[in-house]
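*Target chain*
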Amino acid sequence: TRNKKMKLINGYARSEEIYKANNRVRKIEVAFDGKKYPIEMEFKDMVMHPQIIEFHQPITAEKVRITILDVYQGSKYNDTCISEISFE
């Protein structure tokens, strides 16, 4: 698949209360077919709609690995939630 961008809905985006209660992704690293993507991606907090990361050039890959490097702490639960990830 040829990927030009990644969309991520951070946290448990069902409601603002649940969103704040759980950890959210602050920074990730993306690897395509085992090769590290050259940049780490950082996401803004309190954004409950898709955040879009556009790649410098289209990436063709069979497998994608996403590693969470840092999180925004939740007020109640120590888990990390991502509502949706898609590639275009």
Summary: The CA atoms of residues 15 and 55 lie 30 Å apart. The chain is about 5% helix and 60% strand. The beta strands are 2-10, 23-32, 35-42, 51-60, 64-72, 80-87. Helices lie at 16-21.
